[in-house]
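Hi R.,

Here's the chain you asked about this morning:
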Amino acid sequence: MSSIPAHRRYVLVTPCRNESKFLRVTLDSTLAQSVRPAKWVIVDDGSTDETPAILAEYAQKHPEVIHVVTRTDRGTRSVGPGVIEAFYDGLRHVSLADFDYVCKFDADLDMPPRYFERAMERMEADPRLGNVSGKMVEPQPDGTLLPIAMGDENAIGALKFYRVACFREIGGFVREVAWDGIDGHLCRMHGWVPMSVDDPEMRFVHLRPMGSSHGDILEGRKRWGRGKYFMGSAWYYVLASSVYRMFEPPYVRGGVNIFRGYLAALRKGDTRYDNPSYQRYVRRFELEQLVVGKGRAARWENARVRQRAEPGAVRGSL
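And here is the predicted structure, written out as tokens:
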């Protein structure tokens, strides 16, 4: 294999727990990338299945790339803050100064062969692009692949590919369930553009149905609603999102459970992300999405970001 260009050194950090069903597909498709990761830290978060044995096998075969970190079994899978705690446990074994890009990367993905090369090509062509992913599809019982409805305004949580400078400036990930929404808003506030793109060479397969890693999909939708509350979304925006999600599997009940999760957090007076500038920014951006549509609002907001000063300074007036 040819050496990795100095400007294309990327590190993957993968929290995983009990992923033996999908793990070999993820390992094989990632190691077959046209530009391999310079380092891949995989955090075994207390697995009780064959995951540790599979990781040991691949680490022995690819010691120049794969580094396995083992955590003790906490007794259950923990999404949101648990996943990010595991991510940071892996990141402790990395010096970000040695890399150009860092990626939070799930262990249940099937990757197209040029995925990371295309992501870096996009970063190189756009110096304001701080955080990018492709679009996600999921396998269906009939063997087809169903595109998952995701907006363009942020990278998808399963695969967050960051420019190291951007990741540092936003302070990394918030250790709560809504981390993968908050990070995109913080990118724009710091002068960076986050984005998911519909590039044929960046369409990846999510092998596990979204929201089903801890409990069933309906429970995942309630968790989604609680996350929307934490990240500061307005009730009317969450209601509109819930109605939109009623028209995709699991039909009706999935959308209802999003709003139920939000209302449950509201009634209990759960904590919210405490950043007044961020709260003002989110409410303005959400209102614009409701008025002109999510895609157009994202394009307009990205244009405003590009017109501002260079990345690095938080815009407190947003």
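One quick note: The longest strand covers residues 10-16.

Cheers,
M.
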